Structure formats: structure tokens, C-alpha cells
Amino acid sequence: MVAKSGLRLPGLHLWRLWLVPGAPRLPGWGLGLEVRAYSRCDGPYSRTALYELLGVPSTATQAQIKAAYYRQSFLYHPDRNWGSAEAAERFTRISQAYLVLGSTSLRRKYDRGLLSDEDLRGPGVRPSPSPSASPRKPGPRPPASQDPGQAAQGSRRPKFDFDAFYQAHYGEQLERERRLRARREALRKLQEDKANKGFRWDETRDTALIFLFITLFIIMGFRV
To answer: How high is the mean pLDDT of the chain?
Structure first.
């Protein structure tokens, strides 16, 4: 496959591993991977692989792409999946996909099939902000003969504050949803009040008309 596409494995970046249906599967990973180039001239080209990796359509807005990146990175963050090489690999792929789709200029080139290595190495390209530290490989386990106190001390590591992460990236969205629900509730109550007032007015009007007809009927009866 490498010989056919004219690419060499050394020097390839992780963002060049795209999801391709039917491709050979790597051990320990449930997704088919195949090396693809960004340029059309390098062979087959997929314009949806990075979108599918983030779980968004190719018509998604930048805000939707950003929200999908935060959601995916939250699920596969190494601190949340400690010791899982699969989660670390997925987290890296998600970050690299957002590096392209999170930039309007790089995304435009990617959609047109014109994205190149030089574009990703340009001075204006910055790594996508990750929620915390970059993926880490699990450290070696302490030997069985090691003192339990030392083993417990060595296993201590800073915990990832998921509540702070969620509030930092989703707090504004949650606040907007809360205000929207409050407005809907206020509108519903206003409509109910109007409906109740209208019902009471109709009832009062009907009662007045009935009373008027009875009065006229009595007056006409006295005249006869």
C-alpha cells in the first residue's frame, strides 16, 4: 500500500491516518486505518474522514465542530482512560482532526483537496487547545518488593478536574439553554394568562347578553 501511494512511513504524522472503510485493522484498535495524502495528486482522497472522526457532518458550523471536539476529547482524555493506549490514540487523532477543521482556512483547503504538509507547518498554524496535558503513556508498575507506602506515593498523580473542564467549555452553552428554558416558561405562562382572561371575558359577555335578553323579554311582556 505504501509503495503504491509513493509515500514513506518515516516522517508521517498521525493526522495522515484517516478512517477508511475496509482498510487493514491495527492490533488493539477497532477502526480501519490507511495512509492517505491530503493532495488529490497523491491518490484516493476523502473529504469526510476528519468530520466522521469528530462525529459531525461536513456542513457543520465552526461552533458545532468545536463543541464536538470538546465532547470527544472529554470522553477519550488520557486522564479519564488511564492506561488505555486506544483512548490515547483516539485522543491524538481527535486533536489532529480539530487542528484542521478548527481553522477556517485549513478546513477550506481540506474540503477542496488542496491541503498540504506546508499548510500544516505554516507559521500561523497552532496546535488545537487540548483540555489538559497531552496524552501520556502509562508508567511502569512498581516492583512487588517495593514498599507499599512508596508504591502508593509513586502512583499519586494530579487528578483531572472534569467538573472544571465541563464548566469551562460547556458553561456558556448551559447558561444559554437555561435562559432559553426560562423564556419559554414565561411565554407559556403569558399565553395561559391571556387564555384565562379571554375565557373570563367571554363568560362575562355571555352572561350580560343573557341578562339583557331576559330584561327585554320582561319589558315586552309588560307592554303586551
So the answer is: 69
Give the position of cell 419559554: 184
Alpha helices, DSSP H only, in the chain? 2-5, 49-54, 62-75, 85-101, 104-112, 117-120, 148-155, 162-223
Kindly tell me the burial class for residue 164, based on how many C-beta atoms sit within 10 Å of its own C-beta (0-12, 13-18, 19 or more).
Answer: exposed
Strand partners, 32: 25
Q: From CA 114, how far away is CA 121, in angstroms rounded? A: 14
CA distance 98 to 162: 20
pLDDT tens, position by position, 13-68: 434 444 344 433 333 333 333 334 343 444 455 778 899 989 999 999 999 999 99
**What global pTM score does this model have?**
0.43
